[in-house]
Design goal:
Layout: E1 17-22, H1 31-38, E2 44-50, H2 56-63, E3 67-70, H3 72-78, H4 92-104, E4 109-114, E5 117-124, E6 130-135, H5 140-152, E7 158-162, E8 181-182, E9 189-192, H6 205-215, E10 220-230, H7 241-259, E11 264-273, E12 276-285, H8 287-290
Parallel strand pairs: 1-2, 1-4, 2-3, 7-10
Antiparallel strand pairs: 4-9, 5-6, 5-10, 8-10, 11-12
Helix pairs in contact: 6-7
Length: 305
């Protein structure tokens, strides 16, 4: 018998889960912490910085024992960064360090966030219909727990929230407006320490990772029911902003072409900037070539011997 909405109780977040908020050089602008409080998150969280951050003490002054630090040189040596310039900036090292941090904390499930999120919101109602704006006020714990349960029941390597760019055309961007997922992960990452993988590429590391591993059959999914909102790219000083401005979006996108040339190329998008629609370089994925396709046996056509 199906439970009605009055009798259903949201699941409680398990104790072996932690949120890791990656940051660098902007201790006074870790907006994600307030966004989590606003959405009712009650679980464990930490701000993760590297040991080359000159503002480390300011982080500790603000967040005390909620600050965790990792050795950047160690993860530079371990990471396939495809970086000919020797630039040490880039979030990819912190993303890879998150696995060790979670293990050190004795945590099985961790979600990796950036530090510039403003809020979290639902984009589908309980019937699967597209909705424009429904902020999460009290139930973010349950959202994380349901995501974990979904991963436990499947071989998924990683889950992510959708972003504003996934909804530029509203429900029309997605077939019939009810599609639940897309085969990618960007910006936020729910991970299980029993299913490890390594991020690669000094920039555009999320795209390069899900394309290269996705071609090998690993499942990386974005849940379209939930969306995170963040500060507009390249407007929040420090962090990745400096490296994006140095290399430009063409080189940023081309990193993913190097990792997955059979299904990824550099193309252009048109964005609203300074009240004018302006084109910019961006990666473009041919999804017909990006992921293995398995046809059910009963539908396969066999050639006569």
């Amino acid at each position: 018998m199906k439970a009605n909405s009055e009798s259903w109780q949201p699941p409680r977040l398990r104790k072996d889960f932690v949120l890791l908020i990656l940051s660098h050089g902007r201790p006074d602008r870790v907006k994600t912490v307030k966004a989590l409080e606003k959405s009712g998150y009650t679980g464990k969280w930490y701000v993760v910085i590297d040991d080359e951050d000159s503002t480390a003490q300011q982080y500790r002054d603000l967040y005390g024992d909620k600050v965790l630090q990792f050795c950047k040189s160690e993860y530079i040596a371990k990471t396939d960064s495809a970086n000919p310039w020797g630039d040490r900036r880039g979030v990819v090292f912190a993303r890879n360090a998150a696995w060790s941090i979670a293990e050190r904390l004795g945590i099985k499930w961790h979600m990796v966030f950036d530090d510039d999120y403003i809020d979290f919101r639902f984009r589908h109602d309980e019937f699967g219909n597209y909705i424009t704006y429904a902020p999460i006020h009290r139930t973010l714990d349950s959202v994380f727990e349901l995501m974990i349960q979904f991963m436990e029941a499947t071989p998924i390597k990683c889950l992510a929230f959708s972003q504003g760019g996934d909804w530029i055309s509203g429900a029309g961007q997605i077939p019939d407006g009810r599609r639940c997922y897309r085969r990618k992960v960007m910006n936020s990452f729910l991970c299980n320490t029993d299913r490890p993988f390594a991020f690669r590429g000094i920039i555009n590391e999320d795209v390069s990772t899900y394309l290269e591993l996705g071609r090998q059959g690993d499942l990386f999914l974005t849940l379209m029911q939930i969306m995170l909102t963040q500060v507009q790219t390249q407007t929040n000083a420090r962090g990745l902003t400096d490296i994006y401005k140095r290399f430009g979006t063409y080189i940023k996108s081309f990193y993913s072409v190097m990792y997955a040339p059979s299904c990824c190329k550099v193309s252009t998008l048109t964005d609203w900037h300074a009240h004018v629609w302006m084109p910019r370089f961006h990666h473009l994925t041919d999804w017909n070539a990006a992921c293995p396709k398995i046809v059910r046996q009963e539908l396969q056509k066999h050639s006569p011997v």
